[in-house]
Design a protein that fits this description.
The chain is mainly alpha-helical and 208 residues long. It has one domain. It is built from 6 helices and 6 strands. The strands form 3 sheets. The chain has a two-stranded antiparallel sheet with strand order 1-2. The chain has a two-stranded parallel ribbon with strand order 3-5. A two-stranded parallel ribbon has the order 4-6. A hairpin with a 2-residue loop joins strand 1 and strand 2. The two termini are 40 Å apart.
């Protein structure tokens, strides 16, 4: 095991650079028609009493302002939900990529011993996420650890109507990161990263 600074890296025999399976990403969320999603977000705004009640007197200007604020909040919820779904899709793609990497490692003698066979598939494979981060795999608005945490939490992204406004505004990042950290801690010690210079990873956008 190589130790560089405060990080530990597994030792790989030889000096070959290994090609890993491509990371296949679907970037376009498969959502219901947008008007339905906005309608469900409006229901959340109304049912959770985010806005104060209208005053008793009938004032068109006040009513119009109330409607504008309600729509703004609904659109904000939809934007946050779409970002959640985008992160979930990245997480789903990453877990499938890890599964493909496990197969690749198993089929190569020089890599076979780098993965513990007594770990349930995927669990404790946080070194693959660290490898993606070290390779600079990123896109605006996507946090890889949060993305994996969301996928570990949800087999499929629930419809927006399943969420509270508090979850969409405040809680989803905390929940996702807690899920990721719990998963990552399943790695038996000693925990070591893969040296990024020994691997090649191609990210393929399936929507292009």
């Amino acid at each position: 095991m190589d130790i560089i600074g405060d990080r530990k890296f597994v030792e790989i025999s030889g000096n070959k650079t290994h090609d890993l399976p491509p990371l296949l990403i679907r970037t376009s969320p498969a959502l219901k028609p947008l008007d339905r999603v906005v309608g469900m977000a409006t229901d959340i705004v109304e049912s959770e009493h985010i806005l104060p009640d209208l005053p008793a007197e009938d004032q068109p200007a006040i009513e119009a302002e109330f409607e504008r604020r309600r729509m703004d909040l609904a659109i904000n919820l939809v934007e946050r939900y779409m970002q959640l779904v985008a992160n979930w899709r990245w997480g789903d793609s990453i877990l499938e990529w890890i599964r493909q990497c496990e197969i690749t490692f198993e089929n190569r003698a020089e890599l076979r011993n780098l993965l513990r066979s007594d770990v349930w598939p995927h669990a404790g494979r946080a070194s693959f996420i660290t490898l993606l981060e070290d390779k600079g795999v990123s896109v605006k608005g996507i946090d890889l650890e949060r993305a994996v945490g969301l996928r570990l939490t949800f087999r499929q992204p629930p419809p927006i109507s399943f969420f509270s406004n508090q979850f969409l505004f405040y809680l989803n990042a905390t929940l996702a990161l807690t899920a990721y950290q719990t998963w990552a801690q399943l790695t038996p010690p000693p925990v070591a990263a893969f040296p990024p210079e020994r691997f090649r990873v191609e990210v393929v956008d399936m929507e292009m």
